[in-house]
């Protein structure tokens, strides 16, 4: 099938590369000319495992452009995958979705096209997207072509984006137009039926034979996305609240997580207590859900509480440093990990930034390390007075403490025994309860977890 994807960010690029690998002809469309130039040269502008390799395999089916006419006119399916960042009042900024919808309306071809909203947008957005396309079509000279708008929320996680796209837990399609449903069913058939040959570097999970398809009305599909993110966010906040109590009563939250997670009704994922969630979506989407509910007179107390707990977790790390070192001014602290989670260089709402800002404000000399996100941090955090290190050992020299902020697997392999003697205070705050506590203690560290 002929597919256009508007927006070549984390979601658009991953979707485009995956669909091209599955045999569809895909055009990636973006207003960022520099990004499109790099993609045309086969370069990936973000760090996402296996994306470059899959792009190479899919290249014959994949082109990139900044030109709406080239991408939209021949497409049978058009995805809108542009950003929807949060506004100060919690509502998402829908400017880019509006621009994309208008661009679609001005350039639709004459055959039936389904426009699929993959951006995370408030409930009811499918309807105004349809109106915008209709209005743009009216400005054109010839007869308006037939089209339908559908919602297809995205559930991929950064760091495992391609895995999540090729092997999703479910596909959700929100539309009541049979022709749209038929086209999208054909588009997703290889994923739904799992009948494609997996790339060698992304093997199919054992036992996966088919992916469930959920068909829903537009509003339900849009709400499914927000409900999923809010639930995941509150699962993390729940275990973080337990961590706060566990610490006070002398219990270990990692044991609590295991003890409740093996109950299949609860499930063991998203129960890793620590400095809480960051990233471009949980904060933005919980705020948007609350803003939408406010319009309907609902308070969303549970979602509100999960945001409150999350904010406290970042502060907890700074409090621990203060309690142990007594004075923070003039200290030297090293942060291990800057990205909001491992296997990405994404710094949007990264807890590391807030922790670094707080420490700098208190007169701490802050040193930072990250396996992949350093160059991006140097570009994006220019105003912050911190020192960047590409070597953990050099960073630790003469430090008063280290904070593990991102649970990159390589931090498990650090030669901690060699680091402790180099530091002024061999103190480690494990913000993800991730490292081997006994090993750190044997290496001479004062190890502090969160809630254990
Ligand atoms: N990042 C993630 O892990 C996930 C994101 N989402 C949602 O997907 C949407 C996109 O998110 P990301 O991919 O992270 O955003 P992003 O910021 O990485 O990429 C958005 C892209 O859209 C382009 N763009 C903006 N306006 C445009 C226009 N009028 N025409 C063409 N291109 C335009 C930008 O230049 C940028 O390259 C958001 O609504 C987000 O909430 C959903 C699931 C996962
Ligand atoms: O809408 C989105 O953008 C996406 O948001 C999340 O994906 P993502 O933010 O990429 O990453 P997650 O793996 O969910 O992690 C989010 C944050 O929660 C933190 N986290 C995660 C799990 C956990 O147990 N504890 C915990 O603190 C991570 O460190 C990270 O900061 C969802 O998991 C995706 O399903 C969704 O598509």
UniProtKB/TrEMBL annotation:
Gene Ontology biological process terms from the UniProt entry: polysaccharide biosynthetic process; UDP-glucuronate biosynthetic process
Pfam families assigned: UDPG_MGDP_dh, UDPG_MGDP_dh_C, UDPG_MGDP_dh_N
Molecular-function GO term, any one: NAD binding
Pathway(s) per entry: Nucleotide-sugar biosynthesis; UDP-alpha-D-glucuronate biosynthesis; UDP-alpha-D-glucuronate from UDP-alpha-D-glucose: step 1/1
Top-level EC class: oxidoreductase
Catalyzed reactions: UDP-alpha-D-glucose + 2 NAD(+) + H2O = UDP-alpha-D-glucuronate + 2 NADH + 3 H(+)
Alphabetical keyword list: NAD, Oxidoreductase
Coiled-coil annotated residue ranges, if any: none
Residues noted as binding substrate in the record, renumbered to the chain: 155-158, 225, 270-274, 278, 341
UniProt domain UDP-glucose/GDP-mannose dehydrogenase C-terminal: residue ranges: 334-437
Enzyme Commission identifier(s): 1.1.1.22
Entry annotation: catalytic residues: 281
InterPro entries referenced in this protein's UniProt entry, alphabetically: 6-PGluconate_DH-like_C_sf, NAD(P)-bd_dom_sf, UDP-Glc/GDP-Man, UDP-Glc/GDP-Man_DH_C, UDP-Glc/GDP-Man_DH_C_sf, UDP-Glc/GDP-Man_DH_dimer, UDP-Glc/GDP-Man_DH_N, UDPglc_DH_bac
Binding site for NAD(+): 30, 35, 84, 120, 158, 284, 348
Similarity comment: family membership: Belongs to the UDP-glucose/GDP-mannose dehydrogenase family.
Name of the molecule in the record: UDP-glucose 6-dehydrogenase
Gene: ugd
